[in-house]
Each structure stands twice: as structure tokens, then as C-alpha cells.
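Title: Prediction job returns without error message
Component: structure pipeline
Severity: low
Priority: P3
Assignee: unassigned

Description:
Job completed but the reporter wants confirmation the result is attached to the right record. Sequence as submitted:
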Amino acid sequence: MIFRETPAAPMEKKCMRETMTTALLVSMGVVMLSGGSVGAAPSDEVIEESWEMAQVEGVKVGFLHTTVHRIAAEDGKRLRATAELDLMLKRHNTPLRLRRLWGAEETMGGKVVGVFMRQGQEGGRQLVLAGRLEDGRMHVRIDEGRIERWLRWGDDVVGLYRLEHLFQERKPKPGESWTLKRYDPTYNAVVTLRVAVKQREEKLLRVELTPEPLEAPGIKVQPPPEVWWLDERFAPVRRQIELEGLGAVLLTRTTRETATAPTLPRQWADIGLKTLVSLNRPLPRPYALRSAVYRIQLSGVGDPASALAHDDHQEICNRQGDTFELHVHPVQKSPRRPGSETPPADCLESCYFIDCGDVQVKELARRAVGTEKDAWAKARRLERWVKQNMQVDNATPLGPASATARRLRGDCRHYALMTAALCRAQGIPARTAIGLLYVEKGGRPKMGFHMWTEVWIDGQWLGLDATLGLGGVSAAHLKINDHSWHDTASLTPLLPVSRILGKITVTVVRYTAPD
């Protein structure tokens, strides 16, 4: 989420967003993951412990602490490996501590029998995930059982402890490759990793771990790759991971003292600024633009045209290699289309993040629409109500709309989810969209990652952006994806942003100025 500083809209600073970052990680950027072991008894003894220093662009931002406990179980001893990533960052100059805790419980033979993760932000609601192996399937309970999943599971799924020691057992040589399976709580899914052993770099053996794409409900996700460097004992002493909003994070094995040494706030990376995309020229009155054409270049993402949406809001044209034109022309309200399909039922249902059945959400929606009967007029009233009654706050934890309805503060994700929940509470199908939005920072034109709302009116999806409150969206909104948030308690719907983060170039070709 980002703050607008464009002179074209001399109102108070408004929030847009860098996106997900956190999340989720769920991603990492905005959500803080924290907490202790989920569903475990006190450990019997610590058998392994390691510390790694985390750096972004050569600057220390935190650490990764990994512990392995030998614990007692009814069927004998087990190992419980826990990893905790602790980062100190800034988000548009606001200090932000991000922590992520995850791990697995394994038998002495390496079979994974339990998984766990805890995520949330200080002062906010915790989202807890815990899974136990039952009858050959992993029974995962999320948010104290509000959501339950049964995952197909095999003895070949590698846990945190086993993965750390796998290379010491195999003693691989350059040129070798194989696949393995690992559970990733970010997606609550078993991910297949392609392992490729490369040549040595500075006496360290380079190993690349590339995940295969995942098909999540309503979305295709590409988990980020990792690179490990192994010493002469085949133990990992350096790793590179990718986190939303930060890009590459280098983890280097070191002492506890070095890993936990404090850093100065002025050194912390700003995840808000790192997600901005520079433009070649400014747009006049951007939030009133009727149409625009952008040249998009995307490298290293497979099919580049599939990284952005192709729908009534925008179309992809003139593709050449990793470059194409994006023609953006926001949908305007029109009479019902003959033969138009009905929207998916999940865009009306209450779910974890868009819990439109909440008493407070329904009451706020009722007050906001008053006596209005027309669906489009009601939706615009709800957008305007959110704009007028919510306060921008980049530090507010992301949670269900019911929590936002009581705090009335947050970033563009809160605004979009809140608007969607209010619309659904009034019987208007709604979903969220993620993408890029024009912004000026320091007087220079940029595109920043953003989230807004879409509502189904008379057979068409129409955009609303409560951070602006203008009754619609403009050609300055470039859409990446949309999602109903049905059947999900994670930030997975935000993850398509990670596919283009740091890889996209946007050039303004032409536009139709507002009247």
C-alpha cells in the first residue's frame, strides 16, 4: 500500500499499497508471524540450534533462528523443528517488526506427523494453523477449527529437520537433480520442489530449489525459488529466499550474538518504497482517466501476458516476446447485458476475510445505504461511506472485515475487503482486485501495488476504490487478478503480485484525458 502525493488530488494523503507483503507471507511483507509451538507439549531437550543473519541488499535486517527438540510421544521419541524469522523493517517510514514461525513434527525415521504455523500482527488477531496426520491424510485446522482441510499426504513429504540434513545424507555432486515434496503453510499445500545442484561458488556448493506452480482456489500461484550454499560437510551455511515486498533476503549462518545484534532504524529497508514502479511520464488527473495504453515488459515469469488480467477492464494486445501492450478502459455502468451470466455464488457468501454476516458489518451497511434501492447507487454509497469513515493506518493488522468494522482503520486491503463485505451484506455480489495504481512520490510518476473492490451490477463487474471514493476506478488502475476470498484463511489471493514484483517495467504509450 502506498500514500498518494500527487498534486492532481490535493486532499489528505491517501493509502494505496505495496501489497501483500506480508502476507502473507503468508507472505512476509505486511503480516507479522509470531508465536510459539502450536499444539505441542513442552520439549524434552534441545538437540540442535542455529542462527542465521538476514540481509537485504547488504544491510542486516534481522535473523532466522532454528531449533530442534526431541520430544516424548506415545509411540516413542519425535523431533520438533521450529524456525522463526524476525525482521525489523519500515513501511512508508513506519517501523514494522515482522516475525514468522513455522515448523513440523517428525518421527525419528523422518516421517512428518504434524505441521504448524502462527501468524498475526502485534495487537491483532492471531491466525493459527495446526495439522496432525490421521489415517494417511494431514488434518489441518485453521483459526481454532473455523476452517478444516484434509490434505493428501505421503511418507515422501520432507519436514523442516529432514530437509536441513538431506544434503548431508545424499552428498550430491554438481549436475545432479531430483524432486522432493515439502509442506508450505503459506499455501497450506504440499509443494513439489525441483532440486538442481550447480557448481561451487567460493568453495560453497550452490543448490537451487524451484517450486512447481500451485493451483489454489480461483488462482494460480508460483511460490518463490530458493538458493542454498553448502559447505564441505554439505550443511547449508548460506541461503537466499524471496519475501514479498523485500525481494531477495540473504541468510548467513553465524553466532547468536551477530544474528541478534541491533540495527539502526535508518538502516531498515522500506518495503513500501521497494514496490514502486517508475513511469516514463506523469498522467494528468489520473483517477479520472477514461482510457490508457501502457507498454508492459516482464521477464523471467514464464508467460508474461498471463501475469496481468485480461477482462472487460483491460485487454492485452501486440505481444512480442516478453513485451505487450495493456489497453485499459474501465467498465462504465450500462443497462443489463442480454444473456449475461450470474456471478459466482461465493461472491455473495460470508467467508473468513469478507465476513458479511457479522452483526456490525450488516448494521454499518444498513446505515450507509439508507433508503436507497438501486444496487449500483447502494454500492457507490458504501464506497463513499468507507472513504469518509475509515482512517489510513499502515500498521493495522490485516484480518476479517468484522475486525475492520470495529476499528475503522487500515490500508487499501482493509478498505477493499470492508467495501466488499458491506456490499455483500446488502446482497450485492463483490470481490477484490489487486494490481497497480498511479501515484506520485517525490514529484515523480510511479505505479504502486494496490487493492480495490469490484461489484456485480446488471451482468458486469464494476470497480470501486474506497481509498479514493470517486464512485469507480480509472485507467490508472492496472489489474493483476481478482478473488472472492471464498474458502481461504490466508493471504494467498494477494500472492500473484509476487510474480511480477521487481520484474515489471511500465511505459505510458498514450491516454485519453478526462473531459
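Comment from assignee: result matches the submitted record. The chain is about 15% helix and 40% strand.
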